[in-house]
Design a protein that fits this description.
Helices cover 39% and strands 17% of the residues. By secondary structure, the protein is α+β, with helices and mostly antiparallel strands.
Length: 132
């Protein structure tokens, strides 16, 4: 969906780290809603791959009053409703600090959208000096 617009999207690779930094660990929520299925799938793929965000189950998200407000109270939501269009949404929670520590996450450019790599420390001895 219009690749030239990727850098301007509200959900982008570079903005996810900022959102995770700003969201309260364990309780902060990130809401994604659109009437374009392809864009929704793109949002979900990026957010699902980001290790500090955890998707809220659809049943819980559907019960969230913020989701209901976005679907029917916003100008865009009302326009889509008038045109009998579809709306797609997903909600993500910032994982807690405890979850982050348990996972020992190390987010790098190489694992940002791949599998989560756990942090490891290698100790070597060079001429009697320990280096990590």
């Amino acid at each position: 969906f219009k690749r030239k617009n990727h850098p301007r999207r509200i959900i982008s690779e570079r903005l996810l780290a900022e959102y995770a930094y700003l969201l309260q660990p364990g309780t902060g929520l990130l809401y994604c809603i659109t009437d374009v299925k392809e864009l929704h799938d793109w949002h979900v793929s990026k957010c699902d791959a980001y290790p500090l965000l955890q998707r809220i189950p659809p049943s819980e998200a559907d019960a969230d009053p913020c989701v209901q407000a976005m679907r029917v109270k916003t100008e865009e939501g009302q326009k889509v409703e008038r045109n009998r269009g579809s709306k797609y949404h997903a909600v993500y929670r910032r994982i807690s600090m405890e979850q982050e520590e348990t996972l020992s996450l190390r987010v790098t450019a190489s694992n940002f959208f791949g599998s989560v790599e756990t942090a490891t420390t290698t100790t070597t001895t060079v001429n009697g000096d320990h280096k990590e």
